[in-house]
Amino acid sequence: MFTVVTSVLGGVGLFLLGMILMTDGLKALAGDALRSILSKYTTNRWSAVGAGASITAIVQSSSATTVATIGFVSAGLLPFTNAVGVIIGANLGTTSTGWLVSLLGLKLNVGQLLLPVIGFGAFAKLVTRGRLAQIGQALAGFGVIFVGIDVLQGGMKELAVHFDPSTWPQATLGGRALLVLIGVAMTVVMQSSSAAVATTLAALSGGTIGVDQAAALVVGQNIGTTVTAAIASIGGSVSAKRTGLAHIIFNLVTAGVAFAVLPWFTHGVEEFAEDWVGGDHALTIAAFHTAFNLLGAAIFLPILPQYARFIENRIKLKGPRLTQHLDTSLLRVPAVAVEAVRNVLKEIAATMYAGLAKTLEGDKKWAHGGDLPEIAEALAETRRFLQRIPPPETTGFEFRRQLSTIHALDHLERLAEDFHEPVSLAAARRNASLRKVGEDLADLLRTLVKQLRDPALEPDDQLAEQFSRKLAEDRRTARPAILEATAAQRVDAEQALHELAAQRWLDRLAYHVWRSAHHLREMTRREAKQAQQTSDDAGAPTKIIKREDLAPPKEANAHPPD
Questions:
Q1: Which residues contact 182 (CB under 8 A, 6 or more apart)?
Q2: Cα→Cα distances 227→64, 92, 355, 435, Å
Q3: What is the mean pLDDT of residues 29-42?
Q4: What is the DSSP letter of 489?
Q5: For 213-217, which contacts have Cβ atoms below 8 Å and span 24 or more sequence positions?
Q6: Taking a C-beta distance cutoff of 8 angstroms, is the pair 320, 380 a contact?
Q7: Where are the domains of the chain?
């Protein structure tokens, strides 16, 4: 009996280890692909479900899909309605594990055949780097999963000798309810619904339990994933709590409907499986698991907008307006965390640009405070969050993107520092030519605000660059003339000094607006590569981003590229 127990525990352990290795390897391989897929293929509720199911089936981790989804909701790139669709799709994607186990692990017994794959994958992980190492880890994990299934299946067959299925709770209402609770406990203890389903399928294949009992366990295991979601959402952002609640309600309702019709549902699925898969009980349960999750999707998808509004009304936004979407749980997926920071910076920039436009046009309320304290605190909190994002492992696209985000933050901080200069503002308002420059800059700022707040648009950094360069050139040519007029006593000296200070002030504002808009514009991979090549050609050594890189030195108010 001791050997049987150790075989079962060892099989579960190997399965979990394989899932962890494979999932981590695939998530590392996916990297930026998660962000790209979620941003491109979740434009409506149907594509959102498809994207959620596909990503989860590929990386074998609904938690990775959920965290990425929370990040995109936080970043403002994914409407919450579509995010709920992704969560429903992730639930469907998790059912792929049952098919994987029943078709390959139990039917073909490929564990022994995959031992060389484990060796090759482990060797690749140890001696290579980058994508090859990630592929090796994923392959090793894939092989360990099926070795674990072989061990688990052998243990369950031995266990069937000691346990009669008739000793388990039977197909009464109370018996089914008890089996559902056991299924919940299995998922909570294993912290993996995939491992719980694999254990159930192995027990069914070994004759330890029957089809009706396995079906009830699977319903419970589906509910068990909500416990993990609830724990994960505690202390999280509003987006995390909303996503967790949407996940919990969906799973509970789906499981409740499946439990209510369990005898008829199981019978129907079993008959269907009998015709299509020849009475294979493991495949029957895999089909049942997929079927009742499809039933849940069919219930919720027609009312998805109303369901999303219901969740939003239960958990309302709170906290600082500008940084309420920065969630520490996003730090587990650095690419998504950087995306959240960039979109927070876009809203901070839009707020600052709008206030600066009012100030340049003579709004004294903004000039004497306005939202400046809130903006300053938001920038400080964003810097603290950015410092906690793990640095990229390479100097490729993600490195350039994170570095560009740091530059944007730095320019916005300096713009906030230069914002409030009453003397320069008054001088600019008194002088007709400087007042015209300020009003032109205000028009540019309003254009940038519209672009920053429209997800379909990018900040027009070229227009901002042209304005900044022209203003810098005008200042350089006007300065000698003003000084000469002052020396000839044609202009009051104090007035001339104030006007020169106002010119420099407007020049600094325009420069920081241009550079912040430039760095908030999404760079393409080609642009990142060109930037890398330029850096290499100049002899600048490439390096891994460090914590001190998050606090770039204040350069002079000139116009060097940065």
A1: 217, 220
A2: 16, 18, 45, 61
A3: 64
A4: T
A5: 213/165, 213/168, 213/169, 213/179, 214/281, 214/285, 215/262, 215/265, 215/266, 215/285, 215/288, 216/169, 216/175, 216/176, 216/179, 216/180, 216/183, 216/259, 216/262, 217/179, 217/180, 217/182, 217/183, 217/186
A6: no
A7: 2-314, 329-550
* Eight-state DSSP code of residue 209: S
Cβ distance 149 to 22 under 8 Å?
Answer: no
How far, in Å, CA of 483 to CA of 481, rounded? 5
Tell me the per-residue pLDDT of 415-469, one tens digit each, with 9 for 90 and over.
Answer: 998 887 888 888 888 888 888 999 999 999 999 999 998 877 888 889 999 999 9
Determine the pLDDT at residue 236.
64
Q: Read off the pLDDT of each residue in 394-406 and give the average, rounded to a whole number.
A: 83
CATH entry 1.10.3470 includes domain 329-550: no
pTM here is 0.63
Q: Tokens 């067959």: give the residue.
A: 157
DSSP 491-506: S-HHHHHHHHHHHHHH
Q: Which two tokens stand for residue 114?
A: 């995959």
Q: What is the DSSP letter of 392?
A: P
